[in-house]
Design goal:
Elements: E1 2-9, H1 13-25, E2 31-34, E3 39-41, H2 46-50, E4 60-62, E5 72-74, E6 78-82, E7 87-90, E8 95-103, E9 108-109, H3 117-120, E10 126-127, H4 132-144, E11 148-154, H5 164-178, E12 183-189, H6 198-211, E13 214-216, E14 219-225, E15 230-237, E16 240-247, E17 250-252, E18 257-258, H7 261-264, E19 290-292, H8 305-323, E20 336-343, E21 346-352, H9 371-389
Parallel strand pairs: 1-2, 1-8, 2-5, 8-19, 10-17, 11-12, 11-17, 12-13
Antiparallel strand pairs: 3-4, 6-7, 7-8, 9-18, 14-15, 15-16, 20-21
Helix pairs in contact: 1-8
The protein binds flavin-adenine dinucleotide.
The site of flavin-adenine dinucleotide has 37 residues, from helix 1, helix 2, helix 8 and strand 20.
Length: 404
């Protein structure tokens, strides 16, 4: 059984960033990443692929180019966790043991939870930015749209990037208006409001009202009927619920999400299925040598790559403290950021914490739609992601040094 001082399971946004920061802080650490994929995708770019701004190729890099120097890459996946014996089983049938484990395997997309969706996705106007294979088809659907109802759905929380289901609705609406296409744009969401953070929900309600977008709340997508181009919703009203069928010409679906089975079925899971960690220290509540960050972690923050920017320095500092036999020294405040694209050239940069308080990185009113924030989303953030975050160079969660 191979043994590592630190074993990071998952080499996505969270795993790579944590590995890079740990290696920069203490180059002598013996660190391995268990990750089966040959590529890493910049998922925040998929909204812009669907909106015709980015090419799909721009959002992908080779995993081998992202693994920090001096870190061992084990090209397999974890098939079980046994925290009582400090070991992980891999898809190749090996067992790996560790002093410290970092769980960062992201979350699972439940396409199968919507009847008819797996077979229908990718044709007949049914698209989704939540899959690399489908994001370009969204742009095809937007371009081919000749008029009628364009329907955009959002599942129950938690999901990754809770703003992304509506961003594509705003881009589509903007495009249809520019092209003078008669469209009824409907945003049907399982949530009771437009956005979970009140400070940003208020301007978004204005955006929806001004553009004539129809927002329908408490609408949970249950089935798609591609033959008749209908979407079937369960509409929750207090203690009761009813069925509503909405006919569409274009349907953008965001599937429900859950913790991956390998975590949900392990000792590491909380009741939610996600990794049961302290929401501030990111240390496991029952296994002190286990930490977690990113989408698979069970904190009540908004799951984004931006949240990883806030979490990675905390995990790094607390792992180093743990190796030195000390108590955790750093605390995560729930920071997350959702660049709410509200049209081509317009973005509300929603940054907030556990208390749902705005935590802006820029000395500007964060509730306003701005071209400058569109530029941040389209130009600055991808560059920061690839060149500063994944390389461990950005230890601060903020975009700009003046906010430190
Ligand atoms: C359409 C869309 C738009 C988004 N927009 C934004 C945005 O604007 N801003 C923002 O900040 N965030 C956004 N996000 C969210 C962001 O991409 C995620 O929150 C972020 O990638 C989480 O990082 P992670 O490392 O936890 O998961 P991931 O980056 O998904 O990485 C998980 C890794 O774990 C690996 N893995 C899976 N199972 C196993 C296993 N059993 N063993 C080992 N490895 C495994 C996977 O191969 C993968 O490499 C968006 C996401 C989507 C889909």
């Amino acid at each position: 059984m191979a043994h590592y001082q630190i074993l990071i399971v998952g080499g996505g946004a969270a795993g790579i960033t944590a590995a890079a920061q740990l290696k920069r802080a203490r180059p002598e650490l013996e660190l391995a990443i268990l990750e089966p994929s040959q590529h890493h995708d910049y998922q925040p770019g998929w909204t812009l692929v669907g909106g015709g701004v980015f090419s799909l190729e721009e959002t992908r890099r080779r995993e081998v180019d992202l693994i920090p120097a001096g870190v061992t890459w084990i090209r397999e996946g974890a098939t079980s966790f046994d925290p009582a014996s400090n070991s992980v089983t891999t898809s190749g049938g090996s067992r790996l043991s560790y002093d410290i484990l970092v769980v960062a395997i992201g979350l699972k997309l439940r396409w199968d939870a919507i009847e008819g969706l797996p077979e229908a996705l990718g044709s007949g106007g049914i698209c989704s930015n939540y899959s690399r294979a489908m994001a370009a088809y969204t742009w095809e659907c937007l371009q081919d749209f000749k008029g009628g109802t364009a329907l955009f759905t959002c599942p129950p929380m938690p999901i990754k990037c809770p703003g992304a289901p509506q961003k594509i609705a705003y881009l589509a609406d903007d495009l249809f208006k520019q092209r003078r296409i008669a469209a009824k744009v409907i945003y049907a969401t399982a949530t009771p409001g437009i956005f979970g953070v009140p400070t940003y929900a208020a301007p978004l309600r204005e955006v929806v009202a001004q553009r004539g977008i129809e927002a329908r709340y408490n609408h949970v997508l249950k089935a798609v009927r591609p033959a008749s181009r209908e979407a079937v919703f369960q509409v929750n009203e207090g203690d009761s619920s009813r069925e509503e069928v909405i006919a569409y010409e274009l349907l953008h679906v965001v599937p429900p999400m859950a913790a991956p089975d390998v975590v949900a079925q392990s000792e590491l899971a909380a009741a939610s299925g996600f990794v049961e960690v302290d929401k501030h220290t990111l240390q496991h509540l029952r296994f002190a040598n286990v930490f977690s960050l990113g989408d698979v972690s069970g904190m009540p923050n908004s799951k984004t790559a931006a949240a990883v920017r806030g979490q990675a320095p905390v995990v790094t500092a607390n792992i180093l403290a743990s190796l030195d036999q000390k108590a955790p020294v750093a605390a995560y405040d729930g920071y997350s950021c959702c660049p709410l694209i509200t049209g081509y050239g317009k973005t509300i940069m929603a940054e907030f914490n556990y208390e749902q308080q705005p935590t802006p990185s820029f000395p500007l009113d964060p509730t306003k739609e701005r071209w400058s924030m569109w530029w941040v989303k389209v130009k600055l953030l991808p560059s920061l992601y690839w060149n500063r975050m994944l390389t461990g160079a950005q230890h601060e969660r903020r975009f700009m040094p003046w906010t430190r």
